[in-house]
Please model this.
Amino acid sequence: MAKLKPAPLPTKKYTKASDALRAARDLIRNKNRWTTGDLAVKYRDNETHRCTTKSKDAVAFCALGAVKRVNGPAEKAAIAFLRAAGLHLRAQLASGESKVFYTPEPPYTVGDQDIFSINDDYGHEYVLRMFSRAIRQAKKAGK
Model:
């Protein structure tokens, strides 16, 4: 991962899930701002270390971490659309594969497993696809 300056803290509270999802996707569109295995990471001693999604030092985020970074009143709805998109995409991808999927540890829910699987097992391109589907579905629902 290229060394980056910390990502700016959000200044806007998104009230629509589609807007929150778009902002989260934009946050990690640059592959250097995206990570696997942790919700968010920061630099310390020239290495990346886990941190909170709200840390002023955070430089990169997983898919769920990006949504939590841009949170606002629409966070729960945005995560629900991202879960549904992750489930859909994971089912499409798994139909021809015998891949072992990551099971998240608490406090994450079973629905988060689909987000983590796309993020950690399939990579950045599929994460962006998952976000695009979630945004389309949220807009279609008027959210």
Remarks:
- The first helix runs from residue 17 to 28.
